[in-house]
Write a structure and sequence with these properties.
CATH topology of the largest domain: Rossmann fold
Structural class: alpha+beta
Number of domains: 2
Distance between the termini: 42 Å
Radius of gyration: 24 Å
CATH superfamily of the largest domain: P-loop containing nucleotide triphosphate hydrolases
Largest sheet: 6 strands, mixed
Length: 358
C-alpha cells in the first residue's frame, strides 16, 4: 500500500479536563483528565462497563458532559451547557462493526464525508482506495468484501475527509487473530502518516501494548493510570493497573529487612515505606528457576508447551495454594523447584495502593 494523500489540516491537541458524566444518577465517568497530542496514539483500555464507550461518545459530541471540559486546539468542544455539533468536529471514526453503508458501493462509502467538488472527490476516493489496497473495487458493495477488506474500507472512509482527530472504537476486535495482527500494523502505519491525534478504545491489552504511545487505564469510570506501555507494565501504580496489561502472580508477603517473606520463598525488594505486610506481585516471565533445588519452595502442579517455552503452574511446597504461573524451560508435574525474582521486578502493593515500586 502506498503513502497517504497529502494532509493540509493543522495538527492540534485533544484535551480532556475533569470530565464527569452520570446516567440516572449513577456516575459513569469521574474526573477524567488527559491529553492526546498530534502524532500520538493513546489507547483507552478498560473492561466492559468501565466507561470507554461513554467517553468516546462525549468526545464525538454524541452526548453532553455534566462537568469538566473537552477542548481541541484550544477551542471548547464540550462543557456543561454547551456542545459543539458532531459534524463540526471533523472526527474520523472507525467503528467495531465498521458501519459501512450496505446499499452504497465502496466509492460512495469512502466519499460520504467529503465536501469538495465532484472531480476532487473522485481523486480523493481513488487515492484512498489505492492507499488501503482496494483500488479497482470502487463499484463493489460492502457485503462482497471480507472482514479485513471492510476494515480497510472503513479506515479509508474515516481518513478521506482529512480529519482533525481519529477515534478507533474496538476497530480490530471482530478480526481473526492472524488478520488482526497484520491489519492493526497497517492501520497504525497509515494513521501515523496523517499525524492526527488518535484515541484507540479497546478492551484488548495486546492492542494497547503494541499500538499505543501511551495507555490510559479506565476502571469503573475512573482513570487508574496513564503512561507509556512499558511504564505501566513494569511500574503499575496499583494491582488493578498491573492486571490490566498482563498476567500477574500475587501472594501475601511480610516485609522485613529489605526482603519479602512469602509462601513461595524469600525475595529481595526495594522497600520505600514502613508497611510490614502487603501483596507481592510479579509477572510470570520475571520468575527465574534457581540452579539449586535443595529446600525447594515450589511444586509444579501442571505444565504445557507454549510456543518456544513451557508454561507451568506452581504451588508453594508447604501448602496447597495459592497458584503461580511461570514461563521457562521444560518442567514436569511434581517437579520440586525454587524461584528467584530480581528486586526491580518485584511489585509490592497494599490493597490497591502502591507501597514499593521501582
Amino acid at each position: 500500500m502506498g503513502r497517504s494523500p497529502d494532509r493540509a489540516r493543522p495538527l492540534l491537541s485533544l484535551v480532556l479536563e475533569n470530565i464527569g458524566k452520570s446516567l440516572g444518577g449513577r456516575p459513569i465517568l469521574t474526573d477524567i483528565s488527559f491529553t492526546v497530542e498530534p502524532h500520538e496514539v493513546v489507547a483507552l483500555l478498560g473492561a466492559s462497563g468501565s466507561g470507554k464507550s461513554t467517553l468516546l461518545r462525549l468526545i464525538a459530541g454524541l452526548e453532553t458532559v455534566d462537568s469538566g471540559e473537552i477542548r481541541f486546539g484550544g477551542a471548547s468542544w464540550s462543557r456543561p451547557g454547551f456542545t459543539r455539533a458532531p459534524e463540526l468536529r471533523k472526527i474520523g471514526f472507525v467503528f467495531q462493526d465498521f458501519a459501512l453503508f450496505p446499499v452504497m458501493n465502496l466509492a460512495r462509502n469512502v466519499g460520504f464525508g467529503l465536501d469538495t467538488n465532484a472531480l476532487a472527490q473522485e481523486r480523493t476516493i481513488a487515492a484512498w482506495l489505492e492507499r488501503v489496497g482496494l483500488a479497482g473495487r470502487e463499484k463493489e458493495l460492502p457485503h462482497r468484501l471480507s472482514g479485513g477488506e471492510q476494515q480497510r474500507a472503513a479506515l479509508a472512509r474515516a481518513l478521506a475527509p482529512n480529519p482533525a482527530l481519529i477515534l478507533l472504537d474496538e476497530a480490530f476486535s471482530n478480526l481473526d487473530p492472524a488478520l488482526r495482527w497484520r491489519l492493526r500494523n497497517q492501520t497504525l502505519q497509515i494513521i501515523r502518516e496523517t499525524g492526527a491525534p488518535t484515541l484507540l478504545v479497546t478492551h484488548d491489552r495486546e492492542d494497547a501494548l503494541i499500538a499505543a504511545d501511551r495507555v490510559a487505564i479506565l476502571q469503573s469510570g475512573r482513570l487508574v493510570q496513564i503512561g507509556s506501555p512499558a511504564e505501566i507494565y513494569d511500574r503499575p501504580n496499583s494491582l488493578a493497573a498491573a492486571y490490566a496489561l498482563g498476567p500477574v502472580n500475587e501472594v501475601e508477603a511480610r516485609l522485613l529487612n529489605g526482603r519479602a517473606e512469602t509462601a513461595f520463598g524469600s525475595f529481595p525488594v526495594i522497600q520505600t515505606t514502613g508497611y510490614d505486610r502487603a501483596i507481592l506481585a510479579v509477572r510470570p516471565e520475571h520468575l527465574q528457576i534457581t540452579a539449586s533445588v535443595e529446600n525447594a519452595s515450589c511444586i509444579v502442579v501442571r505444565s504445557h508447551r507454549q510456543g518456544g517455552n513451557w508454561h507451568a503452574t506452581l504451588r508453594p511446597a508447604t501448602q496447597s495454594g495459592p497458584y503461580w504461573s511461570l514461563t521457562g524451560p521444560k518442567m514436569a508435574p511434581n517437579d520440586a523447584i525454587s524461584v528467584a525474582i530480581k528486586p526491580e521486578n518485584v511489585m509490592i502493593f497494599a490493597s490497591e495502593s502502591p507501597i514499593s515500586t521501582r
